[in-house]
Design a protein that fits this description.
The protein has one helix and 19 strands. The chain is mostly beta strands. The protein has one domain (3-241). InterPro entries: Ice-binding_C, Surface-anchored_actinobac.
Length: 245
């Protein structure tokens, strides 16, 4: 093992040991993904944080994965702006405030993608990710820029959720989107993933991803959270810390 690799491994072990019995890890900047993996015959939703992602105020050395209930996304005050036109899928009119995580990387904000890179086309023919439940003080939407200045909206809470709040995922793919929130507070997004097997049948998983919007939005008491799992597996270039069901 090279010295640099050994040093990164020791740093990661120290990070995990520090957080083994703490409250949720805060992700506030750098690259991360909501990811899908298939392990031990089960589909797994998770966070995947890349090298340099800021967790609990410190940049990460290497990569790490957490279960949805082990971390949350901080959407700080630097994500707040005022819309310059009407945004009907968020119920906003010109001048209204909005907090956004854009589909392009901006220093100091989470750059959160959605990925199925850990799924193989040899095993799966297609996959979807749906927003199936939501709680929060305002409205939320996920979209990409469309042609002629329009927007392709995949999830939106305005008007309620239904079967159209669905994102088709390319197997082995990775993409970035715009996340929008209309007011400060705590937003919980329940996501349901379904992956269709090449030989027939499907596997599914459900996870709730938490977003704290506004720098002053406080984390609830640890008693209302699931505590971090203490078990971990360190192997290769990725340090996995997802819960096993």
């Amino acid at each position: 093992m090279k010295i640099s690799t050994l040093f990164s491994t020791l740093l990661m072990i120290a990070f995990l040991s520090t957080h083994a019995s703490a409250a949720l890890v805060e992700y506030s900047s750098g690259h991360g993904d909501i990811g899908l993996a298939f392990e031990d015959g089960e589909l797994e939703l998770h966070y995947h944080f890349g090298d340099g992602a800021v967790l609990d105020g410190a940049p990460l050395a290497g990569e790490i994965e957490f279960a949805p209930d082990e971390a949350y996304v901080r959407v700080g005050d630097n994500a707040q702006t005022n819309v310059t036109g009407n945004v009907p899928f968020l119920g906003l009119t010109s001048g209204d405030p909005v907090w956004t995580l854009p589909s392009t990387s901006i220093s100091g904000r989470p750059f959160l993608g959605i990925a199925s890179e850990e799924l193989s086309a040899a095993d799966f023919s297609s996959a979807t990710l749906s927003l199936t439940a939501f709680s929060g003080p305002g409205q939320f939407a996920l979209w990409q820029a469309g042609s002629f200045g329009g927007a392709n909206v995949f999830w939106q809470t305005l008007g309620g959720l239904d079967s159209t709040d669905l994102l088709n995922m390319a197997i082995g793919g990775h993409d970035h989107f715009n996340y929008g929130f209309t007011t400060e507070g705590i937003y919980d997004l329940e996501l349901t993933a379904v992956a269709n097997l090449v030989g027939g049948g499907s596997v599914t998983d459900v996870g709730t991803f938490r977003f704290l919007v506004g720098s002053a939005t406080a984390v609830p008491e640890p008693s209302s959270f699931a505590m971090l799992a203490t078990a971990m597996v360190v192997g290769g270039a990725i340090y996995r810390r997802r819960k096993r069901r």
